[in-house]
Every structure is written in C-alpha cells, then in structure tokens.
Amino acid sequence: MKKQILILLFIAVFLLAVACRAAMAQESQYTAEELSRKYEPAFQNVLDWLSKNPGVVPGDPERERILKTLDPPFVEKQALLMPAAGRFFRERMNAFLSDFEKTKPKKGAIVWKLYNHTDVIRTPKLTVAIDLIKGFDQVAFDDASLDRVIAGVDLLLITHDHADHADPLVVKKFLDAGKQVIAEKETMKDEPFANKLTRLREGSLAIKDVKLTVFPAYQKSTSNNIYLIETADGLKIMHIGDDNEIEHASIEWFKKFKPPLKIDILLPNCWCPNLALLLRYVKPGIIISGHEHELGHPVSGRRSYSYVYSVLSTVKAPFLVPAWGEKMVFEPNFDAAAVRK
Length: 341
Prior knowledge:
Elements: H1 2-28, H2 32-50, H3 61-68, H4 71-74, H5 83-100, E1 109-113, E2 119-122, E3 127-130, E4 135-136, E5 139-140, H6 143-151, E6 155-157, H7 168-176, E7 180-183, E8 198-199, E9 203-207, E10 210-219, E11 222-231, E12 236-239, E13 261-267, H8 275-281, E14 282-288, H9 305-312, E15 319-320, E16 326-330
Helix pairs in contact: 2-5
C-alpha cells in the first residue's frame, strides 16, 4: 500500500512539473507588449501607492505586500523590453529628480535608492553617486534625465568593472563635466579616458565634508571596492558593491575589524552570500537593501523582493526595502527603532 502511494505521489509530482514547464513555455511565447498590458495594472498600483509618500520604515507589512506585487513582472524574461516596466522606471526617476533637485540636508545625510545597486548620498556639502548607470533597453534614463542626475552629483564611485555597476557613458559624462570618478584599477582600463579616473584600492581621503575610506574586496575573482562614507558629524555609510568572498574565504577584508566596526547604514547587495559572516565584524544600525531585480541579469540571476524580505528577516539588524527613487533621511546618532513615516 505504501509503495502504491509513493508511486502515485511520484506521478503527481511529475505531472505537476510537466504542467509548470508547459505554462512557462506558453508564457514565454507572449510578446513584450502583451506582457506589458498584462502587468500594467500592477505597475500602476505601485506607482499610486508610492505617490502617497508612504515613507521607508522598518517592519511595514503594507510596503512588503505592495513591493512583492512587482515580483511577477520583473522575473519575466522580457522584463527589460516591456513598455510598462519602462514607464514605471521613468516615473520613479522623475519623482526622484523632483525631490533631489530641491532637497539638501543641514546635517547627517539623505540616501536615495535608484535602480539596481545605485545609491545617491547627499551630505550638507557633498553629493556622491555609487554605481550609477544609464540602464538598459526600456528601463533606462533618457539623456536629459541622466544629465540632470549628473548635474547634481559631485563625485562618482564605482565598486567594480561590471556593466550593471560601471557604465562608460556615465563615466565620460562625469569626466567631461570636470567631476571626479573613483574606481579600482581594473575598471574601464581600456577606455580612452582611463587615465582620468582616480584609482583607489585601499586607504582614505577627505573630500569636502566627507571622509572616504576604501577597503579592497572581491566578487569572486573580480576586484570590488568597499566604500565607507563618514560625514562631518559622524554618520557612517558603507556600500559593499557585489562583495562575494567565495574565493577568498578565511582572508575576507572585514575580518580585520577587531572589535567589530560600528557603522550607521549598510548598503549590501541583496544576495550577499557572506552577509551573516560580515555582520559579525561590521555592525550597522540599519541595512538598506540593494540590487534586487537587476533586469540585466538572466532570470536565474535576479533576486525578488520576496527573496530580499526572506533573507533580511533572518539578520539581527533593522532593515529597509525602498522602491526605486525613494528617499531616506538620516541624522547623526539616529535610532533605527525610532524611524517613522
């Protein structure tokens, strides 16, 4: 009897797998325009919710529910080609630009989360963009909007030489505007403007009201810079790019911090495989998620909001999950538990 039940269960699982593959095959036959029409209501619902300025706060079940509705369209193979995804991106970047061009902190820092793993950090005297890219296909800045972002930024930091973090078009625009670009030694080394980049792999320097410290890390075998930004009033913000120390186990960059390094804000990539280990040595007041739904990756290389929430809910630190273009304001000595809408 048990054997018969197991056989029936095996057949049921097999038939379910076949049905799922068939459904996926049928879905893949849809054009980008058909998928766009299918998901347009979901994108619009999120835009409507974000237009109410809900605020990025820890432990907000409504935010989690709303953002997870973007998972189905963003895991479509053709997501980058969907006009609805492009409109969503542009509307979110327009909202960002409207706020960005008129907002300046008197102390601490403002952090805007853009697409992918791009963050823009503004202190009273300096505005820094990290891993700013134009984007791809439908999900991309037009030239005028990109120029507006660059006009408001003083300094570009690049963590590593991958296309979803380092964009030659963006770098050239910064350099043509007479602005500094800091990167590790391998980034765009074959570009005509390569000698105009500031190469920094380790160490510190002062720029206006910010102290910038670089720690050498890796994404597997690719050099990856860790950037620690410290404001004049002591707020510490760390962006780790695509830090992935699989090939440098036991000699990870963060193991030098004894006692652990206390910072205010950590900006990790959402699948950071060594996050639990990192958090033994780097102690953030709050974590801000990044790099979810990188549409330039194949579907298997994307991470959904559902994944982000499942991972970050296991760490022993408060966390924020902003949508593209949202702002977070941090004052010196802020209390993560007191962050409110």
